[in-house]
From TrEMBL:
Residues 199-266 form the CusB-like beta-barrel domain. Keywords: Transport. Belongs to the membrane fusion protein (MFP) (TC 8.A.1) family. GO terms for cellular component: membrane. This is Membrane fusion protein, cobalt-zinc-cadmium efflux system.
Length: 341
């Protein structure tokens, strides 16, 4: 019975009315605003952090072992796709070049032999078996030579006995892990390059808010007076145990390069459109766990529960009111005191 009383009490509070005479209303300075509904975007503002976009990041490794002969960039430099990063001397490349030179000589010899044997065969000086043997030797030499060339080309741009390492993307050299003379191999990262044309922004929503956020929704990041547009591409299925919030990720076009990884920002996600009304912030009062307004009736004020959609520059966007309702927007301290006393 006691539990039922406490459950019913809040409902009774929001259905109550407050009688105020015209004289008292004037004395208290209560002013009214007539509700005019409008369709507005429903948005939610969340704390957020800028992060790298993995698809626009690259780690640079050498395809062969060797020694850094020359560096063309340093950490912090901006590079374009294809820009030279380093020249790496490779004993393997040097050995391969030597093999190619030997194979080229062998191929030329085999070709000369085949030309001579073919002429002798046509003049019926030698048997077909001898001509065929020369042809087989030429094809073998040609195959070996072409295989060595293909192997050399597979390493990329070869300069003499060295290999030119170029940037796979445009961006910034965020890490330089080698110096001139450093030994490198295919397992050792040389550079890390990030492009900031696109970035991920992780916003952190309460579990209640996260339910309403869907992949594909539009939003924007607030930074230094700018609104940088983005799209939700992931909503986590888990609650972060440290923050007790749900990570929501947006992919953002970093227009003008305003954002940088690591920045703490605010992100607004557009949940859709709704019908509501903008009221002065003082018109919406918090009583218990609900937001309420005071709606004018013929000889009294009704305490009306509303839902706050968002706050902006001293105003509050709410729904729960009807077109033509008259809401108290000032002088309402007395009205609130009558509800809470």
């Amino acid at each position: 019975m006691i539990l039922l009383f406490f459950l019913v009490l809040p409902l009774m509070a929001f259905s109550q009315t407050i009688r105020v005479s015209p004289e008292l209303e004037q004395k208290l300075g209560i002013k009214l605003m007539t509700v005019k509904l409008e369709r507005v975007q429903e948005e939610i503002k969340l704390p957020s952090k800028v992060s790298e976009y993995s698809a626009f990041s690259a780690e640079v490794y050498p395809p062969v072992s060797g020694i850094v002969k020359k560096l063309f960039v340093k950490e912090g430099d901006r590079v374009r796709k294809g820009s030279p990063l380093a020249l790496v001397y490779s004993p393997h490349i040097a050995d391969l070049q030597a093999q190619i030179r030997m194979a080229r000589v062998k191929l030329k010899t085999a070709k000369d032999t085949l030309t001579r044997e073919e002429m002798l065969y046509k003049e019926e000086v030698i048997p077909y078996a001898r001509y065929y043997s020369a042809k087989i030797e030429y094809e073998r030499a040609k195959g070996e030579y072409e295989a060595l060339l293909a192997s050399l080309r597979s390493f990329g741009e070869v300069v003499g006995d060295s290999l030119m390492i170029r940037s796979p993307i445009s961006g910034y050299v965020v890490e330089q892990k080698v110096l001139t003379g450093s030994g490198v191999d295919p397992s050792k990262e040389m550079f890390k390059i990030h492009s900031h044309e696109k970035l991920w922004v992780y916003a952190y929503a309460t579990p209640e808010s996260a339910i309403r956020i869907k992949k594909g929704m539009k939003g924007y990041v607030l930074w230094q007076g700018h609104k940088i547009p983005g799209v939700v591409d992931y909503v986590s299925h888990e609650v972060d145990q440290n923050t007790k919030r749900v990570p929501v990720r947006l992919l953002v076009n970093n227009l003008g390069g305003l954002l940088r990884p690591g920045l703490m920002t605010e992100t607004v996600i557009v949940l859709g459109s709704t019908v509501g009304v903008w009221l002065p912030a003082e018109a919406v009062q918090r009583i218990g766990d609900a937001d309420v307004v005071f709606v004018k009736a013929p000889a009294e004020f009704e305490v009306r529960k509303v839902r706050t959609i968002r706050e902006e520059a001293g105003k509050v966007l709410v729904d729960g009111l009807k077109e033509g309702d008259r809401v108290a927007v000032s002088g309402i301290i007395f009205l609130k005191s009558q509800v809470t006393k």
